[in-house]
Amino acid sequence: MTTTAEARPRPSDETTLPVESELDSVIAEDGHPVEPPPPAAIEPDPALAPEEIERLRKSYLLTRFWISARGYWGAKGDRLAWVFTIGLLLLIVANVGVQYAINVWNRSIFDGIEKRDAATVFYLTAVFFPLAIGSVALGVAQVYARMGMQRRWRAWLTNAVVTRWLAAGRYYQLNLVSGDHKNPEYRIAEDLRVATESPIDFLAGVTAAFLSAATFIVVLWTIGGALTLKLGGADITIPGFLVVAAVLYALIASGSILVIGRRFVEVSEEKNQAEADYRYMLTRVRENGESIALLGGEHEEREGINSTFSGVLRQWARLAGQYMRTTLVSQGSSLIAPVVPLLLCAPKYLEGQMSLGEVMQAASAFTIVQTAFGWLVDNYPRLADWNACARRIASLMMSLDGLERAESGDGIGRIRRGETDGDAMLTLRDLSVTLDDGTAVVDQTEVVIEPGERLLVAGASGSGKSTLVRAIAGLWPWGSGSVNFHADARLFMLPQKPYVPSGTLRRATTYPGAAEDWTPEEICDALHKVGLDHLKEKIEEDAPWDQTLSGGEKQRLAFARLLLHRPDIIVLDEATSALDDKGQDNMMELVTSTLPDATIISVAHRAELEAFHSRKIVLERRKGGAKLITDIALIPHKSKPRLLGQLLGRRTRSKPAGPE
Fold this sequence. Notes:
Layout: E1 2-5, H1 21-24, H2 50-69, H3 81-115, H4 118-166, H5 170-173, H6 184-224, E2 227-231, E3 234-238, H7 241-260, H8 264-287, H9 289-295, H10 298-336, H11 339-350, H12 356-373, H13 375-407, E4 416-419, E5 426-434, E6 440-449, E7 454-459, H14 465-473, E8 479-485, E9 490-494, H15 505-510, H16 520-529, H17 545-548, H18 551-565, E10 569-573, H19 581-594, E11 599-603, E12 615-620, E13 627-633, H20 641-654
Parallel strand pairs: 1-9, 4-8, 7-11, 7-12, 9-10, 10-11
Antiparallel strand pairs: 2-3, 5-6, 5-8, 12-13
Helix pairs in contact: 2-13, 3-4, 3-6, 3-12, 4-6, 6-12, 6-13, 7-10, 7-12, 8-10, 8-13, 11-12, 16-18
């Protein structure tokens, strides 16, 4: 069966999203990013307290993130991943080498100045420019390699996550299940960006810090030598005193930042969630602007926005406190670090045991070592932000894992989908529809629908009609039994609120098909048939049609799509609720006359729709799930008494009033 569901293109698990040329280059050769199967579900010990279970879940999130993220370097990841990685490491090594050469140059130039050796000073001045140019060139190359690697890793992982998100309608199913996956669009756009940018910055930073520390500790040990102090008449010798001082200084600074910023991760994560909630609130106002304006709900919406924004400000205030405390340490450290080696070397210099060049070289090396050791001090806030973002994107991955496991039959039962036996267009065999926790919504439904049959699903609100229709369309996967379609049958679903994509009206009319698949004449003819003649001249106009069209116009537009796609099975879920009685009659008569062989399944409350259906089933809400209580054969009427009565009424009212 081919499904053409309104507002829901259904890519298979192997479908790759349309991407630009650079994104194409980070996709595996078989056409899609490869990700390991979802990890097995980890069931917590029931004896643990809820707080302990939550702590274990959070600690697992980083592991879950790396299970997917490391695939970038896998056999079927980005073909240039290791090229960028190795290239970046080589550039860092070369940069440290140039840094060492500049450190040696620093010693030589000050020794030349101290000796008033003009020739040496001029020579070293000439040597400095190639060193400076080399350092700048390596720095630029390192930025290119680092940011190129970040860009490609983000593209690869984004494509993998979005493909899983859109597959099998999971982006819709996430709204139906519990879990920590609120605002998935923010997590994919922002959290995933930070989660892929920061680790590469950390890799480059840690590698450079380690190499710099190792290189310049040797310099400090060699230049500084041992320091002898007289305490209480005894001589105390400290070998490599500059190295000892650098290590002690770094331990004090790093230890201080760890103590002061121990809650940075928690505060940063809560700030990100508050920002996501605020953005979602603003998006909701924009998307529902017409309804809010018609109801005059601006004041209430402003209250909601203010409340959400107050939460953002509170989290920012907490984060600002964390930043101020860490800045106190980092700023103080950056001011004191250059002075410490000068004070430590001053006694030896004054005694003539060190030259001015050696003092300046030692000061430069001490600062480099201190910067390397203090890398954590400078990057702890970013590390905390990455931790929070990686956990949020991992939470989304875990929710997708759950849906993916459910699709394979792990845990909650799944509704099977197959092909019908014989000529039946659609059969529901012992169909039970449940929530993701196993709670029954519709129980044990048996229905056989023949080709061309028009079935009306009725019942009180909350009886499970729309849920049953979603199960038929494949949107609702949980339950048992089977939904079977005739081989090669194409299904098209019209929801109560049709989706109108961005772009031209021509694209909106042909969605989810390509606008080029139909001629302008065919599109205009479809618009004419559904009563949208006033839009025919605007089909090439790019406008915010989702905000421009009324609810009734959107539903008429959905019927125009139906006429263009001409499916075998049509599912109408309150698809005429925004139309008046006459408009509803016109749309239903249009469908039945234009697509006489199509099988129609309708969900509606209006009794008038019975005239356009040949059969009616009624669901009744009961304990343990809604039950199919009646299955009635209907006799469609060519003309409706209600319409005839209205016509006669108008004619009667048009006659002149006579004497009584």
